[in-house]
Amino acid sequence: MKKQYIIGGFAAVAMALAVTSCSNDYLDLEPVSNENSESIPDNVSKMRAAAYGTMESMYRQYSTLYDYMWFNGEPWYSIWFGESMGQDENNYFVAGNTGYGFTNWDHMSSYGTWGAYIAWVYPYGIVGQANYMIAGEERLEKEGELKEETAFRMAQAHTMRAHAYIRLHQMFGPRWVDSANGEVSSVILRSAAPDANQPSDMAVSSTNEVLKFIYDDLDRAIELYEISEFGRTYNWETDITVAYGLYARAALLKNDWVTAEKYAHLAAEEYEVMTASDYKSGFNSPNSEWMWSSQESATGLYYASFGASFACNGAYPCIWGNYGAGAVDYTLYKKMQNSNDVRCELFYTPDKEGRALRAKFWNSDDCSSSTMNLNRGENFPARLQEFCKNIYSQIGEGKRWVFPYCGDYFENALEIYETYIPFGAQFKFWGTDNYAAGAFPFMRASEMLLIEAEAACHNGNYTVAQDNLEKINKNRISGYVKTSKTGDDLLEEVKLNRRWELWGEGFSWFDFKRWNEPIVRDAWEEDNLNSGNWPDSYAKKFEVTDFNNWVWPIPRLEVDYNKLVAGSTHESVEPE
Length: 576
What we know:
Elements: E1 6-7, E2 11-12, H1 15-20, H2 44-56, H3 74-83, E3 89-90, H4 92-103, H5 114-134, H6 137-142, H7 148-172, H8 207-228, H9 240-252, H10 257-268, H11 276-279, E4 290-293, H12 306-310, H13 315-319, E5 327-328, H14 330-336, E6 347-348, H15 355-360, H16 381-395, E7 425-426, E8 441-444, H17 445-459, H18 462-473, H19 487-501, H20 508-515, E9 519-520, E10 541-542, H21 546-550, H22 556-561
Antiparallel strand pairs: 1-2, 3-5, 4-8, 6-7, 9-10
């Protein structure tokens, strides 16, 4: 074990223990202190510290997982699983840095991969921390101490545990249409602190049991939030609106459209959709619609911060420019292309250029067929510098942020000629310092409006869906005209708008899975201006039946040490 972290002054993530143990206690997330689970929640200060520790564990540097491409918690989970495996973000940084197995789903082919390992251990780390807090709930309630801030902190524990199980089910559980009405197995429900009398060998629970557990946790969280009449201090804390939002997310996993519509509406009604200027301000700080996010400071994360790899002015896109910071799927972009849409301004795509240069996007002398990098030959360098200067003057210059895709710009403007920018390069996410510090959004009001709209389509409430699209798009598109579509046409428009609005925020793979739709990446073809922008090595179609219907295998570390799951999982889920 390399290191243990004491977070928030008390609670322990103990991820180091979780991933280095060689017995079936690898999920026994004991706090780094001499306190036991019964004494943890015995006063407000300890409750607050324990809650802060659990929530702060969503974004920090983990020493034992650092070698896995700088694992940092929720942002990593969102990008590597939600985006690199999806359709809408072509991220050569992930693919080119040992992430080939993610981009092409090879990590799903065996229960011995580190992808399956992280997907399992990280959420259960949150579960273990929450369970320590919840272990004392009954006693506090009997003693009349479950009130005010104490109730608020316990509500946060239930909220975080629900979030963790949503994550686990998204990865290891079946989509609802494959679940035999909820009877197919999902994940293990661990609901007691590790030092309690909970057996070490535990069977996998059904989808219905897991989703009921999530619903029950959120019901309890909402009840406690209401009892407490207490408020959060930081945007990285959970509160009742986050609990509503998680309820809506969980309901989507069950196709429970009535519940999804109800809770998404409750979650969003206290927030305002950000303006076009807010959307185009760097996406690194909470604003009027950010319901839940990571900490803004990257203190202690350094190169493990989200922005270091995925901000357009991050350390790695600037220093190792051949990787870029993510690019939009050009097929999606063409569907949404609109010169009046602020979101379109944030990608370097062919429509930004005149006809002559536009064709060069599909010329191998100017665009690398293997990486989609454009800074080749004599055509692009000067124009790329001009484009970057222009967008920098609008977003980062006044704040003295690092220049996009060129960290040495202030020292030598010509350095941009040595920097590579991929076809469809994004300028949505920016960092605020040399390590590209900044917050990452976990939940936004626009997501809730889109969940409500999607559910409303299934419920026949077409006016609600139309109104919600208008609430978002009138703040994105100058002169937006409200849609009059209904039925399946409206549902498809909602889904397309969801992909566009939430691009790069960690939803793509998870959405396509629950929609039961294949992922299709259109390949780049020489001199074919109608082709896509995926290199051949990643331009694939993933059918809905591939890889065990997109269910990750329970990892080896669980199978080897839990007798009740050893025979219930499969080592290989490769497509037939």
